[in-house]
Amino acid sequence: MFKRNAIYGVIIAASSINLAHAQLEEVIVTATKTASSTQDIPIAVTALGEESLQQLGISDFSDYLIHLPGVTAGGGGPGTNTIYIRGVASTTPNLTTSGVAGLAPNVAFYLDEQPLTQPGRNLDVYAADLNRIEVLKGPQGTLFGASSQAGTVRMITNKPDPSAFSGKLKMGAAYTPEGDPSHNVEGVVNIPIADNMAVRAVVYVDNQGGYIDNVAGTETTRQSARFQAGGFQEGADLSAVDFRESNNSSKTEDNFNEVSYSGFRLSGLWDINDDWTLLLGVAQQSIDSEGVFYQDPELEELEVSRYENDTLDDDFENYNWTLTGRMGTLDLLYTGAYTERESQSQVDYTDYLNVGQYIPYYICDYSVSYPGDAAPAGTCYAPNLFIKSYVKSEVQTHEFRISTDQSGRLRGLGGVFYSDMELREDNQFTYPNRNKILAADGVTVGWGPNFSAQPSSARDPGQWSPDVSFRNDVLRTDKQLGVFGELNFDISDQFTLTAGARWYDIEVDLKGSAASSFGNLGSTESNNSGQNLDELFSGENDVAKTDGVIGKVSLTWTPNQDQLYYVTWSEGYRPGFLNRPGGRTAPDGSYTVPFAADTDEVTNYEFGWKLDLLDDTLRFNGDIFFVDITDLQVGIFDTSITNLFFADNAADAEVKGVEGEFTWLPQFSTGLTVSGGFSLLDTEVTDSFVTSFVREGDSLPFAPEVQATLNGRYEWDVASGRLAHVMGFVSYSDKVNTDIVAANSIELDSWYLLGVTAGLSDDQWTAELYVENLTDERAEISGNAIFNVSRVTVARPRTIGLRFAYDF
């Protein structure tokens, strides 16, 4: 098989150029857990190198998604997003149910060798001092595990370098005419300690100004689902009920969705001898945000009405270690990590009125909640509803792998992976005006502890706050064990056969309670209207167990060093899931919530190509694929059954697609680089097992039929050793639906985003002026209608900024 001469110590962007030779450079990735050129591996992989990341101004999760066709995300802002690849998606969880009730993501997220994938939403890691971002499309489970069902995203950091002292300072400021200003600073230093030791540190702060306005509005309990079509009291004469208004006049604010990222990363490298190296690292990050990052389509652009404060403090710490070495012809690696994430948030829950059948029980007089006639009289107090949420996860991972000499005709890689996650969640659903009802009825305020016979599974075994009406107090554990391996055999100089497999064993368990304080007015006894998960998940329902074997076979043809073609069959999976409301039944008896959702699986068939053409001035990579999805896990919210989210294996589906990317160095204009990519998808639900929620024939959510990007950059000499540049890009996405559950879905419009950059640089510094979202497009990048009202997340309005980088 043909091999390329690559400089393994230097990873450069796919769009970068060599002005002297005007030829494409190699991009080295570790997508196969060995260092290889992207052009030498039979995987659909996109790599944004360090130079591309800087040129495109990529700093956080939302930035790099815009430049990756075939990759989308659901969620509502920083720290809340879930990644989707190739349209393999079903449901995006609400922030307040993103932990213990969250499905395992089907795209794995890695920081170097450390998997950081968590239920419901991924860590939003700031892109500071990164060497590259790798996106591996299609199932990667034979090498990367359970959540690699649809693909894997890897953020690869720069490592300590013992050869020289170096550093970098980056800073920027930006002005958003329809919002508040932003500013950021990042510092990096690399310090050799000896010929074989070095440390590297990065510190960053990024304050991003808001652009969503919280405008005046009113709400009353009259809007509760209980009084609407299909509600329990539909058609009742409510003219004698005094519906008090929630009024947010004291909370209105322009540009109220501010967010800041701050953190550091410290790593140390020790070359123990010629064969062994130890790498240690620690990282810490905090995200502090206020407000929401979506608009209400019923109001003006960039406007929403919120009645309680929305805040999020999302912190994580990561400790990791990697030992690499060689014994004879074998390369060995052991890597481990411990990650702790703590998220505290308050979320305005007033939108829940639209689906909450039981809200009047808590904030209306007894005569209204339980009318004795068709014309009740009484008071429904202002429906100021919010949730205080505490989520803490602790994850430890360990991986040991061995690889043979990669220059041999037969090459192998195998290993063992283990992870243990504990996720504790305490959600307190709070209705502040209920105390007025209690006082009016002569009831002493006070609530019993949450199942006082047993300690809290989350953090607080004490009394509930008097305003708390419902509480989730749950411990979720996920344990995974996997044994994996791949073999590559060169049948001839041109053909290579790859075969891989993974055996996995996974257990998911829930402990704690999901309980209401209704019916316990003034009681000091344990809650009697709740759900003890320790009792629910016992016996045959003890844990959700998943085990099995998946495989992969790929045949690669390399007719010469500039062409590679491959065909691949591969499988992927994600773990099963326990349902807190297991056993609940629809009023008409047509549906019963299962105690557990089983594994859902994908089978991927793919033909791909990697081409370097026109004397290495044009690179064109692409693939055609078909994905068969069986027993797709779907998150469902239906208050006629239960007021808790639950999951079921609701459907089979399929995805057909074509995707590609190119980089072109036109010979008629030295210094010009043109690059881009596209994704064409056709998705369909082929069979629905729960037709009351999922419709056969519908498209999968967050699966645009067309996505495309185009980027042009021109560089020229303006003085000795100094370059000027201009760059422009455009990204386009077709319209999408936001949920596979028809009742919870809305359609997002198609959009395009334009950006331009101009600047000067030399060997040490770069200064740039840029404009993002040049046309001020309201690009609808995410959204939901879980509470029967549309909420649409839009891209940041037009932003003008300056950024400066200095290497020393």
Automatic annotation (TrEMBL):
This is TonB-dependent receptor. It is a multi-pass membrane protein. Belongs to the TonB-dependent receptor family. Its main location: membrane. Residues 38-152 form the TonB-dependent receptor plug domain. Keywords: Cell outer membrane, Ion transport, Iron, Iron transport, Membrane, Receptor, TonB box, Transmembrane, Transmembrane beta strand, Transport. It comes from the Bacteria.
